[in-house]
Known about the structure:
Elements: E1 16-30, H1 34-39, E2 46-59, E3 62-75, E4 78-94, H2 98-127, H3 140-149, E5 157-159
Antiparallel strand pairs: 1-4, 2-3, 2-5, 3-4
Amino acid sequence: MKENTQPKDPKTAATRFSLQKIYIKDLSFESPRAVESLLKPFERSDVNFQIKAENRKVEEGVYEVVLMATVTVSKENSPLYLIEVKQAGLFLLNNFPEPELAVMLNVYCPSILYPYAREVVSNMTERGGFPQLLLKPVNFDAIYRQYAEKGLQEAVPVEG
C-alpha cells in the first residue's frame, strides 16, 4: 500500500502546539544601596512591576516568545533593588489561523513563561538579601482582549 505523498492542505491540516525549550535570555539584579538597605529592618514601601511579551518567528512554525519583567522596589523614592528578567521560550505552532496564532503568541505562551519569571524574581530577591517577593498572577487573556479591542496588534505590555 502506497502512502499519500501529496502535501496536506493547510486549511485542513491539524493544528500543532509544542513547547520546545524554556530559558533565561537575560537577567539583572541591582541593589544601589545594598549596605544601607540591609542594615536596617526591611520595610517594603513601593513595588513597581512592569511586564511585556514579544515574539518573533525563528523558522517555519517555530516562534521565540520573550516575557520581559521589570521589578523596582523603592523606599521613600529611593530604589532598594531592581530586577530585570527576560524569560524566553521556543514554541512550535503549526497550522494556526492568524487570529488564533496571535492569541497563542500573546496569551497562551506568555502564560506558560510567567511562572518561571515569577520564580526568578522571587529567587533573585532572596539572593540579594531581601525578603521573598511574590509577584501577583497576570491575566494575559484579559489584557490581550483589551488591546485587541483597541486594534493594537503589537506586544502587550502589562503594568501592575
